[in-house]
Structures are given as structure tokens and as C-alpha cells.
Amino acid sequence: TIGHVTLHPNASSIVPGKVTFSMQWRDGDADRLGRMEAIIRGAAEEVAASGGFDLSFGPMLGLEPVDMDARLRGALEHAAEAKVPGRWRKMPSGALHDATNVSKVMPVAMLFVPSIGGISHAFGEDTAEPDLVTGLGVLADAVEALG
Questions:
Q1: Cβ count within 10 A of residue 15
Q2: How far apart are CA 18 and CA 55, in angstroms?
Q3: CA 80, CA 90: separation in Å to the nearest integer?
Q4: Residue 99, φ and ψ in degrees, nearest 5
Q5: pLDDT tens for residues 75-110?
Q6: In a 3-state reduction of DSSP, which class is residue 20?
Q7: Were both Cys, which of 68, 79, 80, 128 would link to 142 (CB 3.0–4.6 Å)?
């Protein structure tokens, strides 16, 4: 995903002479992340060379994917099966959520609830209230079981 984009001189009637942007890519496999980075760098270098552009890379974030704690995941899975039998699934996530940083000091797991129309990480993202209530029920049951 391309994130922040800065154009210089950022005027509607002038072709930019400089563009700065951020990118983010995610996966649960650290080796695949490294390969993705190499492909992205190579593609950017090819485009720059073919157009005669200067290219530089800033620092890479370098957060490694973390495994979710098996005990916490198990509690969430059991609670989900009890609350909505057969209507839940395990989802791999290479997400750089707070879980990445929190995992350095304590076990982590994540619980996802469906977004309306599958729209996620966009301004149109929303979740139906019944799905939020179900998610909270799953979380509460998992916490109680761990308690």
C-alpha cells in the first residue's frame, strides 16, 4: 500500500519535480517480506533508470511479523465456536498492529470482526453493530475462560 505522498512543488499546474511517498507491505512470513522488499526496490530502480530519475530509499521500518500466542488464540477459537458455530475462521495476519510492539512484553492475539462489504483500511470501513456485539461476546468469553 502506498501511504503518504508529498509532491514538490505541489501545484496543480506544475509537473512535480520530486515525489516522496511511503509504502507498507505485510505478510506473516519474514522471508517473504524480504523478497517483497527486494522486488519493490528492483521495480523502483527499473522505473527510475528508464525515466532518467534520481531515486533514494529512506529507512525501512523493519518490524518482523509476530506469532500470536497459542493459548490466547485457543481461547478465542473456542469462544468463537461456542458463540457462532462454524461461522468463524482462523486468519493469518502480517499486520503491524500494536500487537507487534506489545508482543515484546506480553503474549498477544487478535480478534477480527467482519467489515461491511469486506471494506477494510479505507474511509468506507464500517462494522455492523450485531457483529461488534458478537465480537465483544467472543472476547468476554475468552477472557473468562482464561481467567
A1: 7
A2: 10
A3: 10
A4: -55, -35
A5: 999 999 999 999 999 987 766 678 888 988 999 999
A6: strand
A7: 79
For 126-143, b where at least 16 C-beta lie within 10 A, e where not — what string? Answer: eeeeeeeebbeebbebbe
pLDDT in tens, 40-66: 999 999 999 999 999 999 877 767 788
Q: What does pTM read for this prediction?
A: 0.74
To which H or E segment does residue 146 belong? helix 129-146
Q: How far, in Å, are 8, 73, 93, 141 from residue 110 at the CA level?
A: 40, 8, 9, 14
Give the whole-angstrom CA distance, residue 121 versus residue 81: 26
Residue 43 CA to its chain's centroid (Å): 22
Peptide bond into 130 cis (omega under 30): no
Distance of CA 5 to the CA centre of its chain: 19
